[in-house]
């Protein structure tokens, strides 16, 4: 699976299978549109690179174009954004 590792991380912070599925579709959309081209597997052994990857994913979730993406759902997007912020904060705390 293309995004197996980030899905594992996301599920650690999520308690909703529908939000997990929404995140998976979000990643597939980013990949298809080539907004996110660095595979997580390529950087999974480097904490700083992981932080940058999650930062990029989070910024893309908050940008103005997010509403134009396929399968956009305002409620799920908001929940996903909250989880992404928690993941990003966790990585920042680990690096401090």
What does this structure look like?
The protein has 5 helices and no strands. Helix 2 (17-32) crosses helix 5 and helix 4 runs antiparallel to helix 5. With 96 residues, it is mainly alpha-helical. The model has no long low-confidence stretch (mean pLDDT 90). Helix content is 71%, strand content 0%. The N and C termini lie far apart (31 Å).
Outline of this structure?
The protein has helices at about 5-15, 15-30, 40-45, 45-60, 75-95. It is an all-alpha fold. The chain is globular, with a radius of gyration of 12 Å.
Key attributes of the depicted protein:
96 residues, mainly alpha, 5 helices
User: What general outline do the C-alpha atoms trace?
Assistant: globular
> Strand pairing plus helix content: what structural class?
mainly alpha
What Rg is obtained from the alpha carbons, in whole angstroms? 12 Å
Tally of extended strands? 0
Largest sheet: none
Would you identify the regions where 5 or more consecutive residues have pLDDT less than 50?
A: none
Per DSSP, the total helix count is 5
Proportion of residues in β-strands: under 5%
List SSEs in N-to-C order.
HHHHH
Helix % is over 70%
In round numbers, the mean pLDDT is 90
- Termini separation comes to 31 Å
């Amino acid at each position: 699976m293309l995004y197996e590792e980030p899905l594992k991380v996301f599920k650690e912070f999520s308690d909703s299978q529908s939000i997990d599925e929404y995140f998976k579709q979000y990643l597939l959309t980013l990949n298809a549109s080539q907004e996110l081209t660095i595979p997580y597997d390529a950087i999974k052994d480097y904490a700083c690179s992981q932080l940058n990857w999650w930062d990029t994913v989070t910024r893309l979730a908050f940008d103005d174009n997010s509403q134009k993406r396929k399968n956009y759902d305002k409620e799920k997007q908001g929940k996903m954004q909250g989880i992404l912020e928690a993941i990003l904060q966790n990585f920042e705390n680990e690096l401090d």
